[in-house]
Amino acid sequence: MPDDTLPTTADFLQTNRKRWDELAEHHPDTEFYDVERFLDGATTLRPLELEELGDVSEKPLLHLQCHFGLDTLSWARAGADVTGVDFSEAGVSMARELADETELDAEFVQANLYDLPDELDGEFDVVYTSYGVLAWLPDLTEWAEVIAEFLAPGGTFYMAEIHPLGTTLADLQSDGAAEIGHSYFEDDAMRYEVEGTYADWEADIENTTAVEWQHGLGEVVTALASAGLTIEFVHEFPFSCYQQFPAMEEGEDGWWRVPDAEKQVPFTFSVQARNAK
Ligand SMILES: C[S@@+](CC[C@H](N)C(=O)[O-])C[C@H]1O[C@@H](n2cnc3c(N)ncnc32)[C@H](O)[C@@H]1O
What we know:
Layout: H1 9-26, H2 35-39, H3 47-53, E1 60-64, H4 70-77, E2 81-86, H5 89-102, E3 106-110, H6 116-119, E4 124-130, H7 140-150, E5 151-162, E6 169-172, E7 178-180, E8 190-193, E9 209-212, H8 217-226, E10 230-237, E11 249-250, E12 256-257, E13 268-274
Parallel strand pairs: 1-2, 1-4, 2-3, 4-5
Antiparallel strand pairs: 5-13, 6-7, 8-9, 10-13, 11-12
């Protein structure tokens, strides 16, 4: 008999959705997201994804887990015909407000990623997702099937993401001394309490519980290949999009690195795959 007092995956997603709703209300006011700079015309995309994905002009682009829309709207500024998806009502409503304010053409859909095939029609030349997305997803096989379903024949899937090796570490010092916080091969949901948010550690956030899942790089690539996509590249980089450990230093390019050049591990990876049908 299953123990129905135990939380289910649906309960975990609901816990995360409550937290993300609160974060989506708070994040537009943080220096981390610097909405003013975006409203002044700056892109929030990094040279990494802009260069690796290349020209998106006039291409239908689906952005999965778009938060409150800054990157989606930056792809619109780069010429793409964008649709952003997120399960947070607050995130999607802020994204729509920013689209109105900037007069950028964009569709935003509020949906759990796994339910997207019931909520959205169409095919996209580009499916995109980035930085801080996979840890919120319990199942990557199903995630990749959703991507394959929306990717037009010949279309490109591209992701740039926080590397799953770095996230297993509880600490990493500049001399390379590291402490492993959880297994790279952890299968179970990891529930934890967090004060504040990565965008503002001092913030008074009520929904402190978060639930994450660990997904190794092999699992990511295998899920995409199993969904029928042809992998074009997997790149790994020794820098992070945020200060993952106190020993990290920010470079002029905005990436965070461990200073000792002899002790480098990956903190970011990118994958490009094609629907070769
Ligand atoms: C770290 S943010 C994405 C960050 C984005 N790169 C940025 O900095 O704006 C992760 C997003 O995933 C969304 N999310 C988490 N689980 C989801 C799910 N099951 N379906 C749709 N969106 C989800 C959250 O609401 C949040 O907006």
